[in-house]
Structures are given as C-alpha cells and as structure tokens.
Write a structure and sequence with these properties.
The complex is a heterodimer.
Chain A (H helix, E strand, L loop, with lengths): L3 E6 L4 E6 L9 H12 L13 E5 L13 E6 L6 E6 L3 H7 L2 E7 L8 E7 L2 E7 L7 H11 L5 E4 L2 H4 L7 E4 L5 E4 L4 H7 L2 E6 L11 H17 L1 H9 L4 H7 L21 H10 L3 E4 L10 E5 L5 E4 L3 H10 L5 H14 L3 H13 L8 H12 L4 H7 L2 H8 L6 E2 L2 E2 L9 H9 L12 H4 L15 H18 L5 H7 L3 H13 L5 H21 L12 H4 L13 H5 L5
Parallel strand pairs in A: 1-6, 7-12
Antiparallel strand pairs in A: 1-2, 3-4, 3-6, 4-5, 7-8, 9-10, 9-12, 10-11, 13-14, 14-15, 16-17
Helix pairs in contact in A: 1-18, 1-21, 6-20, 10-11, 10-12, 11-13, 12-15, 13-14, 16-18, 18-21
Chain B lengths: L2 E5 L10 E4 L8 H7 L7 E6 L2 E2 L11 E6 L5
Parallel strand pairs in B: 1-5
Antiparallel strand pairs in B: 1-2, 3-4, 3-5
Classes of the chains: A alpha+beta, B mainly beta.
Bound molecules: iron/sulfur cluster.
The site of iron/sulfur cluster (SF4) has 12 residues of chain A, from loops.
Chain lengths: 576, 75
Amino acid sequence: MADKIYRVNMTTLTTTVEDVPENLQGHGGRGLTSNIVAAEVEPTCHPLGSHNKLVIAPGLLSGTTAANSGRISCGAKSPLTGTIKESNAGGTAAAMLAKLGCKAIIIEGMPSTKDNWYNLVLNDKGITINEETELVGKGNFAIVETVASRLGEKFGVISIGQAGEMKMASANISIKDPDSHLRSCGRGGLGAVMGSKQIKFIALAPTDNKVAIADPEAFTAANRVFTKALVDNPISQALGQYGTNVLVNIINEAGGLPTRNFTSGQFDGHEEISGETMHDTIVEREGKPKHNCHKGCVIQCSQIYNDMNKKYKTSGFEYESIWAMGADCCVDNLDHIAEADSMMDDMGIDSIETSVAMGVAMEAEVLEFGDGAEFCRILKDEVLAGTGLGRIIGSGAGSVGRAYGVTRVPVVKNQAIPAYDPRAIKGIGITYATSTQGADHTMGYTIATNILGVGGTVDPLSKEGQVELSRNLQIATAAIDSTGMCLFIAFAALDDATCLPALVDMLNARFGIGLTADDVTALGISILKTEHEFNLAAGFTNKDDRLPEFFSEEPIAPHNVIWDFTDEELDTFWDF
Amino acid sequence: MKITIKLFAYFRDGRFKKRVSDFFDEGTSPGEVITSLGLDLEDVGVIMVNNRHAAADSCLTEGDVLAVFPRIGGG
Ligand code: SF4
C-alpha cells in the first residue's frame, strides 16, 4: 500500500488521510517537512497561532534495515527564530511511522478553547484525536511511562513536557528511544508549536508491517557496503567509545571552545567535563559508554551515564549540551551537568538554547558563573514552575539579553550559537550566519574540515575557502537530513569512497528509481533554496545573515582573533 | 629542548595525559615524538603545536606544546 499523509485539524478536531501528491513523493525527512511548510504555511504567520503547521516525517530510508536510518524530522515556522525550521532526532518513532505507511503527519489549526488537551494515536487503521487530562502538566518521562501502561510497552511516543505546554520558545519535542529514554528534536522551539496545538503526545502503535523495497537484493547488497563503511571508520569507532563529547579537549586545544559567555576560547575545567573523563566515569559507575538511539545505529555515540550511586541519570549526553552547561557557564562538574541535562529532557527544553541563556543570565549577574547547583535550582524552581524569570530563560538566550540589557548575546536569528567559536573556527561562523534556521552547527559542520581533518583541511583561522566549504556542507546536509540518516554517517561519507554511492544505491533499491550523486546534490540545493525563499517571504533579508557585532570587536584568546568577514563576502554564500 | 606533550582519547591508555619532556633535540618533528611513544602515525588524526594544526614532519622548538589526537569526530 502506498504511503499516506495523515492530516490532523485541531480546529475542527477531525482527521483525513491523503494520497501523497506526486511532487512530494521523492521527499522525506527535512525535504518533506520543509516543502510542506513552504507550500502550506503563510510565512508571516504567528508561529504559535492557528496558521502555523507542525509537520512530522520519517526519512526516505527510515523503517528499512539500512544502518543509521532512524531519524525523524519535525518542521514548522519556528517561534524562536521566525524562520522555517527542521529539527531531527533518533528514537523509535521514525521507523514506526514508516512501517505504519505514514509519509507525514500534518497538524494544523488550533482548538478554540485553551482548557482542553489532546493526544493522537496512530495505528494500522488510521489516526485518532483523543482528549487528554491525566498527563497535562507532566514531564516527558511520566508520559513515556503512562503511555506504556495505558497502551502498551511497544508504543512509540512523540511528546512535549511542561516547557512545550507553556509555549516557551526553547521547548523541544521528545522522542522515546528503545530503552524508554528520550531523544530530542531540540532546536527552534517546535515543542511550543505542538503545545499551541494543545497536543501533549502522539502515540505510535507497533505493527508487523514491513516497508516495501522495490529491489530487496540490491538493497541488501548496498546496505552491506554502507554498514561496513560506517563500522570500519575510525571516527565512528571513537564516537562509540567517547561519544560526541570527545570534542571538548580538541576544540579547547584549538582555542575555539566558547567559555564564560563567549569571552575566551579555552576553559580551565576542560578536562573535568571532557569525553575522556566522562568515559572513565561511566565505566567506573557501571553505565554504558556505547548505546544507540535507535535500532540499526551501528555507530552508537549515545551512552548511559549513571550517578554516584550507579543509578541511571541521563543518556544522549552530547558535546554541545555539555559545552553549554560546562564551558559556557563555567560549570566544571559533570554530575551537575548530568542532573541539569536530565531535568531539561524531562521538562522538554533545548539544552543548548537554555544553557546559553543561563550563560547570558550569568553575565547579567542573575547567578554566578560556575554555580552548577544554582543552575539546577533555577531550572526547577523557575523554568519548570513557569515564573517570570523562568519564562525569560525558557524563551532563549536572546530573550535573557533583552530582559537584562546584555549586549554580548551569542545568537543568530535569535537562536543560540553552539559550542564552536566563529572567531577561531571561521567556517562554522559562515554556517551560523547563513543557515536557513538560525545558528546551528549541524546545518553545515565545517568543524570536520576546519579542525578534525576530515574531508580535507581548511585553516580554521583563515577566511579562505570557508564560504564554499560551508555551502557544500549545507547542501549535502540538507540531502542527508532527507534520508533519515544520522548526520554522523558524514564522517565515513567524507572519508570512504564506498559510503555515499552505497547510500544512493539504497535509495534507488528502496524506490525502484535511478538517482545519481548529482541528483542528490540537486535535492540538497532545492531544499536550501525552498527554505531560504520561505524566510525571505517571512521578512528576512541578507542583513539577518550576520553575527552579533561583539564577534567583530572583541578578540578571543588564545589566538586573539575577531570575526572579520565583510557583509559582501557573507552575501556570496547564496550565489548558487 | 623542553617541550610539553599532551595525548588525548585512547592514546592516553597506558601512556599519559600530559608530560613535560627534555628528551628531544631542537628540530625534532612531531612525527618522531609520536613514534617514539609507540603510537602509529596512521592512527593520528590531528597534530597541534601551540594550538595550531601542524604537520607530522614540521620542526619543534624550545617551549612548544604538542597535542596529539587520534581520528575523532562528533557534532
Ligand atoms: S550515531 Fe548517535 S545520534 Fe547517530 S544514530 Fe547513532 S546513537 Fe543516534
């Protein structure tokens, strides 16, 4: 049976099942969410009003046996940035949606009264809207537990915590993982959009259906080559051992680890929060250094981090989150960071945006740099409780800067800059400035080439080649984000000549088509342009593709460099 | 000459995190230091000298800080 689009109208509380229009059939993941948002959402609409739509889609290869294909995309107009937004995560939902024959769920409209909350249940027979009372005001962990007892252990869950209910601009959407822990579509406040539709969770029924494969033999053969390229890659192996947090020490050594609200490029406490220390702590406390966020991931960058009593504390403990709570806020205690990470997962708020917001609050002397205990208290007593201060922090770094009159506010298009200082690693500054979604390292990960020596080398302190590098990576990323693949396949893809052709072969075998590598690049280009046009129509101009002025005025140690791209140089990004 | 050597990730196993050494002569290359530690240059992803990327066959001088990383990634 051909895949369907499930449309949920929250104004009329009705659902429809639609055939996938021909122009969307070749799309999945980010390409699909962005194309639907661009076609159906008025770019100038209020992101939390009835005209915005939340689109949820598995990738093109999700639900198949393809390694690392379990990423789910959520898209909408972002309440944080005002731009188009796609945010993706692992967990079990992408594969389950694909197996249920769901190309996308489109949620539109909004209930006429503020009091009623709802859940959606998708199964073989269709999708239903049900009233929800029990879980209103509850966190994501309680939702996962309750859905398991109410509907069954094997149900997938897509949910929002209290932050999403309060429509905070940093609220995220959580996805249940195979161990009933959480992964997050973290960035851009999509949890607030789900909250504005008054949907607390979406449950996905388990099914025995299989995803149709046009040429199973060719698919299996290509998947074998692809998986081998991933497994054999030394970077994949290091990701399994240390997680993404292995980056703390190398970014610190390169002088690009933003510290103390972006006033230095190195953090004295880097060893305490590093991937090496985290690995040893995990092993000592009998956690798991290696863990996958969805079945089929062969890289396993996730982990189980236990507390001092060897009890589960958090998982999916990522470099960018640890950097934000650690170096940016000068907290050099992994246990405080793990506690905060777990709280943010539960209330459903982006750990990057919220922690960078805390760094700005520290600069405003709301709390002191390095005070991890107060960081945790504010999360609990202010953000979770929805006090005035909590809502200011929960609305992101830009919001804190405006409320307290701080000028050193590291945001682009009002989204917090993550983990890599654009003065000392210039390629990533191009990505932050020009990305269609506000500052986001995953949109074009130039760190690979600027720092890690993957995909060639480009000097991080030189301007040369950076615009082109960021552009090529942003195009490739838009395409990868459409396949359902985890972005960490890119290390093998950049390193191993067999990897990308095998990925293209899998797409061809899945759908019985004949894509070439050039077609995949063309797909990436068309997605970027579609997103860019949406932003222009929403009122953005080239003047929004800029970094905050302090980057051009305050040199950062140890290299004592500033951000020195001219406006004209930045504007050449869109010359393609 | 006196140099500081820093190792990262699994390169630390059975070796050290950081060591100040006066064992090497002026002009020794990072590659020579790395092999003397029983590390295979093939496994090395990134070499930095004084916080800047450096080639395995460059020259070290007095006071340099050499950092050696295996092939790693994240994001
Ligand atoms: S590498 Fe990490 S983020 Fe990617 S699929 Fe595996 S566990 Fe998830």
